[in-house]
Structure formats: C-alpha cells, structure tokens
Write a structure and sequence with these properties.
heterodimer; A: 244 residues; mainly alpha; two-stranded antiparallel ribbon; 2% strand; globular; B: 120 residues; 2 domains; 6 helices
Chain lengths: 244, 120
C-alpha cells in the first residue's frame, strides 16, 4: 500500500463523508428524483473532459458557439448546458441564464438543488483526481418521487436563487448555520437544506468544520496550519477567478 | 483569511503569491512554494505535473499533509462554483481591509465582481 493510501485509511472521516454523499445522491430529492440526481452528477462528471465546453470557454462570448450539449433521458439541453458551465465556466453564469432555465421548466428552487448536487460531486471528484485515485462509481438511483419541501423565510434579493434569511432559521433547519453566522455562501443553497448539510459535511473533512472556521491557528485535527490551508485556498480561488 | 491568520501567527505573507506573481516563492508560509505548486498542479489537469508536485510535497512533508492539501483544493473548487452559480455578492463590501486586498490582487477584473457591484 502506498503512503498516500495508508494516509487515506487514517482519515476514515473522509471515506464516511463520501459514502454519505453517494447514499444521499441516490435518493429522491426536493425537485429531482433519484435518476435525475444521478443524471445531474453524471453530466457534471462528463463536463471536465467536454470538448464543447473547451470551445465555449475559449470563446469571447459563449453565445458565439450555438451548439448545445445533447439532452439525455432525464435532463433538457439547457439544463445539461448549465451543469457543464458550472464546472467549466462558472464565472460567466448570469441571472438571464437562470431565468431561461426557469422558463424551460427548472424552477429556481430546482436550480439551487442542482447546483448543490453538482458542486458536491465535483468537489469529491477533484479530491480523488488530486490524489490520482479512481473516481467513485455513481450509485444506482433509488425509486420514488421528488418531494418538494420549501423552507420558511426565503428571500430572493441576494442572488439568483431564493435563500433563507440570515436570521430566518426555523427548528427544521436550525442546524444549517450557527446563530449570527449565515454568510452568503452558506445561505446560497439553503432553499435545498439537505445540500447545505452535504456540503458542510464535505467541508468539515476536506477543510474545516464550520464551528472551527474562527480558529485561525492550528487545528488539533489537522497537520496543515491555517496559513497553509489559506494559501492553497487562495491560489485555487485566484485561478478560478473567484471574486467572492 | 490568509493575511489574518498570518498576522495572528506573527508572520508576514506575500499575498501576491495567490495570483502567481510572487518573487518570494514560499510566500512566507512553511512549504509555501510546494503547496502553491500542488494547488496549481491540481488546477492544471496535467497528470504529469500533478504527480511531480504531489511527490515533491510528500517528500518535504508527509502523505497526510498531501491528503489535507488535496482536500483544501477540492473544497475551494466547490466554493467558487456555489458563489458564481448562485450570483451571491461578497457579504461585506464596506470592509477597508477587504477592499485593499481586492485592489491589491486585481480581483475587480474577475467576472464574478459584477455580482457584488450589482447589490451595492
């Protein structure tokens, strides 16, 4: 066993978080049923090696390339296009596109859920790629219908999607963020609370638990100190042209 | 966060390292050059560059640190996509420190800056 594989076995928390995500992925969600969620994840995975995305990314305007990604049994072409863009050209996503998606039948609540599915899967895949590990197989979907459950106290003035007000946590979602916290990036997916829970779980093993964010020194559970973590975070974010 | 964590540790960091423009290769951080090279290698999607950077980091530190570094890179691949896909603005655009750093690093040229300007 290589040193990396040995080190991975010393981090069972990572394996648990990944397994939990794939169990979650297979189940019916708020607006997407299991097979649709798997289709979203598969499209997200395919985007990383998509030749059409490379052409669109290189174009001065994405509209110069009229070709669309092919639809599949579960997702319309506009949805597949958006999933690919979240992976390969996220900086140029506009509210106009989200409106167009809405007109194609994907509500903003469904879009928030879709974003969550895509980014969690991508984060897991990136972790595996960084270590040259085989990507985990996508699960088989569980049967059942999606069950829309809209959280209370949504507001629509912050971004492209509805999100729970900073001080609007009810008992059903009180675990999403600590009182008085609620940064926009935490709230962004809160219209689909389970996706916030999933990304928090991944963040806790890949980076730090939310509760430890305020510790800017050395976490007892990590070998990297906070400066080293933030150096990596900052470089990755800069290459991604992340303003946030 | 990098500047604040460095200040708390009594260190000085070269933030221009984040944009790839630093002459101080380690940016004032232990294993900084290797961590930066690894982050860039992850983003490059070139398996040869990635293997070289990963091996160099492991030899200088440990396999456990490589795992953690991969996790941090993967985490921030997710965060930018949440922010840009949902169009959220920066939480506090009025902070003087934040404004100085954004100016210093040239972040106002990033496409996502429009989402924060839009909400002013």
């Amino acid at each position: 066993m290589s040193n990396l594989n040995q080190a991975l076995t010393a981090r069972p928390d990572i394996q648990i978080a990944l397994s939990n995500y794939f169990l979650f992925l297979a189940k019916p969600g708020y607006c997407w049923h299991g097979a649709q969620k798997i289709a979203i994840a598969a499209a997200a995975r395919a985007a990383s090696t998509c030749a059409l995305c490379t052409r669109k990314k290189a174009a001065l305007s994405r509209n110069q390339i009229k070709t669309r990604h092919p639809e599949n049994d579960h997702l319309n072409p506009l949805t597949v296009d958006m999933i690919h863009q979240i992976i390969t050209d996220q900086g140029r996503i506009t509210e106009t596109q989200v409106q167009a998606l809405e007109q194609s039948g994907v509500s903003r609540l469904a879009y928030a859920e879709l974003v969550g599915i895509v980014v969690c899967l991508f984060s897991i895949d990136e972790f595996c790629r960084a270590l040259s590990q085989t990507l985990p197989e996508l699960p088989r979907p569980q049967p059942g219908l999606a069950s829309p459950r809209t959280p209370e106290n949504l507001e629509t003035k912050t971004g492209f999607v509805p999100m729970i007000q900073r001080d609007g946590l009810t008992d059903a979602v009180k675990d999403l963020w600590p009182t008085g916290f609620g940064a926009n990036v935490i709230r962004a997916l809160s219209a689909a609370p389970d996706l916030v829970r999933q990304w928090k779980q991944l963040a806790a093993v890949f980076y730090l638990p939310l509760e430890e964010m305020g510790n800017l020194g050395q976490s007892a559970s990590r070998q990297l100190n906070r400066m080293q973590m933030e150096l990596i975070a900052g470089r990755v974010s800069a290459i991604n042209r992340c303003f946030y | 966060m990098l500047r604040v964590s460095a200040k708390l540790a009594g260190d000085t960091v070269d933030l221009t390292a984040l944009t790839g423009a630093s002459d101080a290769k380690d940016a004032g951080v232990k294993h900084g050059a290797l961590l930066l090279a690894f982050a860039e290698a992850v983003m490059s999607r070139d398996s040869s560059i990635l293997t070289t950077a990963r091996n160099a980091l492991e030899q200088a530190s440990s396999a456990g640190i490589v795992i953690e570094a991969a996790g941090v890179a993967a985490n921030f691949q997710r965060m930018v996509r949440i922010a840009d896909a949902t169009g959220i603005p920066v939480d506090d655009m009025t902070s003087e420190l934040g404004a100085t750093i954004r100016e210093e690093l040239g972040l106002y040229t990033f496409e996502g800056a429009a989402n924060s300007a839009r909400k002013d």
